[in-house]
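<discrete_fold_record>
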Amino acid sequence: MKNKGCLSAGTIGIALLIIVAVLFFWGKSGYNNFVTKEQTVNTKWSNVETVYQKRANLIPNLERTVKSYSKFEQETLTKVVEARSKATSINIDPTNMTEADMAKFQAAQGELSGSLSRLMAVVESYPNLKADQQYINFQREYTAIENSIRSETVYYNESAQDYNTSIKTFPNNILANFTNFKEKPYFKAEAGAQKAPDAFKE
């Protein structure tokens, strides 16, 4: 009976070791998978910031071009410059980004989009400015960048969805909660976001 009891204790010990080993390797694999997916989200976010920054970088040249036309409505240009300043002042840490952060970022970028759209609408009333080569160059670059923004925000959302699904699926959610991996916010579609900006008109 004594040998049988020792055998049982040994069997239980081995079983426990196997369970611990399985949990360890599952946890290691799951953790590394979370890290990889989160890094992908961070990279996509960096791409989003880059294209928005490219758009912001167009504004100084636009400002110089428009200012050369003294009769142009300066208030419209001023609002673009102010919106650019506000948009570029928002810095977000993608490793700790919240829904509120995303909403603030989108609101500022949306304000800049609206200001630029209003300015370009006003330019339609100024044939000489509209035909200015510098303005034409701006509009070409602006159209390309807006299309890139749409693409990069879609890529970001796709990577965020992949990551979020991974950390919220059972039993991964247990490990994610224990290791403090948090859900990433999504870009929300804006009115008219599905329509690319028109190229300059002749």
